[in-house]
Structure to design on (260 residues):
């Protein structure tokens, strides 16, 4: 469904953030992207929807080569890729409902978006999504009245109301406490399963990634160092991705898989 071919990103500073990445993500697969700081995880996610322009190589979403699209083609293609951010990127003075509906701005016409008059079907879907993530009662609250976990749930609804094929998720739990982090990861993975949605989740917490995803890709110095199931992330493998460290405390223990 998503295919990256020889994807390279060299920043103007000369930093080679991605070195010829080859990656395929089938429909419905949730993949965690791990690796040390500076490995290129954010760059990879942002090159897919061209928030960062790749230097060379190809990005394919289904039959569309995203790297070939002009700006209007890209605008259309971006509807198919929902993005969830670490810092939520909500509009603080708008309500929860308005923030969720802003996910539809790529679909509604210019005048409608200017006056924020969304079709009833969009409003109905926003209510359904808010109900699904447990925020129905918050629909009229301002975004700046919410906790971090609640904000991220709004961010998830905003991405899903686009009806995307792929979710690009950039450190969704980095600003959250451990329990809320688990809840958010679980929610993202459940929603992907319910909707047959593929996702790439850039995440620092290896144990959290191992708990929820089917596939882990480890980046190091802009190259894929590991690609496999979470249980294959043994200490030696972590050392090749991150360098020398005592990994026993990091790797998921079976009895840690709490179903809360
Ligand atoms: N806008 C930029 N201009 C120049 N260099 C950049 C830019 N953004 C990232 N880089 C460089 O590209 C490399 C990869 O950065 P990137 O942010 O993608 O890594 P990351 O794995 O997401 O790191 P982190 O986990 O710390 O967020 C780093 O060497 C970084 O310094």
């Amino acid at each position: 469904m998503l295919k990256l071919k020889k994807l390279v990103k060299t920043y103007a500073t000369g930093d080679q953030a991605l070195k010829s990445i080859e990656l395929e993500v089938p429909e419905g697969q949730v993949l965690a992207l791990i690796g040390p700081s500076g490995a290129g995880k954010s760059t990879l996610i942002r090159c897919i929807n061209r928030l960062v322009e790749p230097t060379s190589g190809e990005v394919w979403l289904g039959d569309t080569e995203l790297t070939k699209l002009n700006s209007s083609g890209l605008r259309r293609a971006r509807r198919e890729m929902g993005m969830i951010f670490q810092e939520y990127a909500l509009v603080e003075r708008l309500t929860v409902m308005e923030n969720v509906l802003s996910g539809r701005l790529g679909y509604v016409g210019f005048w409608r978006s200017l006056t924020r008059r969304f079709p009833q079907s969009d409003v109905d879907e926003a209510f359904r999504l808010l109900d699904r993530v447990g925020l129905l009662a918050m629909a009229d609250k301002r975004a700046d009245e919410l906790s971090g976990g609640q904000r991220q749930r709004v961010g998830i609804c905003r991405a899903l109301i686009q009806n995307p094929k792929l979710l690009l998720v950039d450190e969704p739990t980095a600003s959250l406490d451990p329990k809320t982090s688990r809840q958010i990861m679980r929610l993202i993975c459940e929603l992907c399963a319910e909707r047959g949605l593929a996702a790439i989740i850039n995440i620092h917490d290896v144990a959290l990634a191992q708990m929820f995803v089917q596939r882990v890709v480890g980046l190091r110095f802009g190259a894929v160092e590991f690609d496999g199931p979470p249980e294959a992330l043994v200490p030696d493998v972590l050392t090749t991705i991150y360098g020398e460290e005592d990994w026993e405390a990091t790797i998921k223990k079976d009895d840690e898989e709490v179903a809360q």
Notes: The CA atoms of residues 36 and 242 lie 6 Å apart. The radius of gyration is 19 Å. The domain at 1-80+166-172+199-249 is CATH 3.40.50.300 (Rossmann fold). The pocket of adenosine-5'-triphosphate is lined by residues 11, 13, 15, 17, 35, 37-43 (CB under 6 Å).
